[in-house]
Amino acid sequence: MKRIVFLFLLLAAMPYSFAITQEVYVEGGNHHVQGIAYDPDASKMYFSFTDQFIVTDMEGNLLGSVRHIQGHLGAMVFDRESRRVYASLECKDDVIGKGLSDFAKGRSMFYIAIIDVDKVTSVDMDSEDNEAFKIVCVREATKDYHTRFYGCSGIDGVAIAPKIGKRGGKNYLYVAYGIYGDKERSDNDSQVLLRYNLKDLDKYAGKVRFGDFYSEGPKKPLAKYFVYTGNTNWGVQNMAYDPGSGKMFLFVYKGSKEQFTNYDAFSFDLSKRPVKRGLIGVEYDTSRHPVIGSWENQVSGIFFKYGSTGVSPLGDGLFYFSENGRSKTTGKQYCRVRLYRWDGEGFVPAGR
Questions:
Q1: In which domain, by residue range, is 63 found?
Q2: 113: which strand partners?
Q3: CA distance 259 to 72
Q4: Do residues 156 and 237 lie in contact, with contact meaning Cβ atoms separated by under 8 Å?
Q5: Closest Cα to residue 306, out of 255, 253, 245, 229?
Q6: What's the sign of the alpha-carbon dihedral 160, 339, 192, 217?
Q7: pLDDT band at 101 (very low <50, low <70, confident <90, very high)
Q8: 213 in a domain, yes or no?
Q9: φ, ψ at 117 (rounded to 5°)
Q10: What is the CATH number of the domain that holds 91?
Q11: Is 4 part of a structural domain of the chain?
Q12: What are phi and psi of 229, to 5 degrees?
């Protein structure tokens, strides 16, 4: 009996990375993958290919999809409790929205798409008037975009995590701004994170009507944080929280200002309290804000070439990362999802 118990404990203590799928390959269309999300309960993967949402099994077989999406569908995160995917959705009249939301004509708005994955039951479903695909307006980001505050170019990275400054507890949705990389600006060196109650977002969600700007959403986020990282191009592309290490990871397209190291990613300890202080380089905002920086709250830089086109945390330091490219055979954009682990200093393939 003792031997059986010992064997059980030994197996339970072993990393489970070898018991789960190491790699998933799927092809989309003309636009590259923006985000991925893993559903361990249904053994499915969810993909955002900019203008379509794709569902596959863990062998990459297509099970369902939503197309005809009005705008730029970006980073995603899966909530196991509600069985919904929360994804950033930009509907704007600029280089990002070209061909995706041309009707915007200066009236750009930003949304969280709330996708009920169990209602995506067939291939090529339409996003319009669909119970499976609803949207809620991120009014704070829309306001900052139109006032040109903090270098805001919209939104992208999303993550589900406890309240910043606490370890564990209730989960919230975090939404990160896209940030223009303009080297001539000084107000664009902090990443901006908004925190929302998931149920509040669900309450405001409505169906898509093409050509219409749905404006329902919380007037204000529960909190607005500034993470001083230095310059990036387009801000936080993807974001992930790992409860094992207690770290929030931010994945970016590296910046180009010479005074910064310009990392590919950043991390900070979620349990450490932000410090209220003024914002560096922001002359028009003299208020004190919750800031996570390189002093009391250490922000660490990471060199890692993946993460900006998709990451999905599994827990215990394990992550799925998107490795994207274009197929030489079909000409379509593809996503190869691979399993990595955080070793305390960087991300390494889980099989090593």
A1: 20-349
A2: 87, 135
A3: 32
A4: yes
A5: 253
A6: negative
A7: low
A8: yes
A9: -65, -25
A10: 2.120.10
A11: no
A12: -115, -15
Q: How far is 21 from 350, CA to CA, in rounded Å?
A: 11
Half-sphere exposure of 280 (CA within 13 A, CB side): 15
Q: Is residue 11 part of a domain?
A: no
pLDDT at 20: 86
Q: List, in sequence order, every residue forming a beta bridge with 340; answer none if it has no partner.
A: 319, 349
Number of domains into which the chain is organized: 1
Here the tokens at position 131 are 């119970």
- Say if residue 202's pLDDT is above 80: yes
The amino acid that residue 129 corresponds to is D
Bigger pLDDT: 342 vs 97: 342
Instruction: Indicate whether 266 belongs to any domain.
Output: yes
Confidence of residue 293 (pLDDT cuts 50, 70, 90): confident
CA distances from 192 to 8, 199, 252, 276 (A): 45, 22, 13, 14
As beta bridge partners, residue 87 has: 76, 113
Report yes or no: 287 and 277 within 8 Å, Cβ to Cβ. Answer: no
Hunting for tokens 């330091």 — which residue is that?
Answer: 317
The C-alpha angle with vertex 178 and arms to 66 and 134, in degrees rounded to 5, equals 30
Q: How far apart are CA 43 and CA 51, in angstroms?
A: 24
Q: Tokens 């950033």 label which residue?
A: 88
**Residue 253, helix vs strand vs coil:** strand
Block residue for tokens 């080297």: 183
